[in-house]
Structure formats: structure tokens, C-alpha cells
Amino acid sequence: MQADSRISDAAAPEILLVEDNHGDVLLARRAFKDAGAVSHLSVASSAEQALARLQGNEAQGGEAAPDMILLDLNLPGMSGHELLKFLKQDEELRRIPVMVLSSSSAPMDILKSYALYANGYLVKPAHAYDYIGLVAAMEQFWFEFAMLPTAPAMRPPS
Question: Considering the domain boundaries, does residue 41 fall inside one?
Fold first, then answer.
């Protein structure tokens, strides 16, 4: 995927990968690079680390909230499902699209993720070239075609 001329480096989408497996982090970084991804990938190795980053958002003088979260389900401590539940119940964080990225294709994991308002469920590809295609398609959909909210707290109209 070629970088979209509408997206400058300063406005590059930020993706937070919540993943504890170092090998999977390396594979994801490589796939983003090889796909020519325009987004910036940052990593939290636990749900607690992700929460600390997310709760220190730009409204509180910290880092800007990410434009998307890629969430593994099998994390040490707080699980991916627990983090997803917290995110979608939080008025400031629920607007961030959360894509579950798991090695599990178990129907119960998929059902539970959508029941907790995941924006999508992706099974980690077995081959690097499939991962590159997944990254390219995901970036194209979310950052070229989908319309995302830009305000930190978007309340539905009354």
C-alpha cells in the first residue's frame, strides 16, 4: 500500500498494539513496514500498560489517544476481553476502534469480543505475506474509507 498523499507524517494515524508476545510484535512491525503502512505502531505489552497510556491521554497533557487499538486476547494479568470491556464502557475511550488480533478462531472468543463491542475480529495470519496483506487492507479501510470521530468525547445526539 502506498502512503496516501492526504496523510502527512505529522498526521500519521497512531495504532496501539496490545501484545505480550515479543515474536508477534516483531512480526507485526515487519508487516507494517513491508506493507508500506502510513500509520505509526506503538506497543503495550499488557492491558495494564495500555490502560496507563490511554488514561494519560492528551486531555491530561500526555500522549494523544491512538486512532486504533489492535488487541490480543491472551494477555498476562488483565485479559484482552477485560480491557475491551473497560474501553467500551469509558466515555472518553469508547470512540477508539478496537480490532481484536488473536491467534484464536474459537467461536466463543469471537462472539464474546463482538458482545463487548469490538469493531472487528482478526485471526493472526500464519504467514508473513498474509500479515502484510492484512495490514494493507486494514489501513486502507480504517484510514482511507472509514469516517472516524475526531473529538475525544463523542456523545450521541439526544
Answer: no
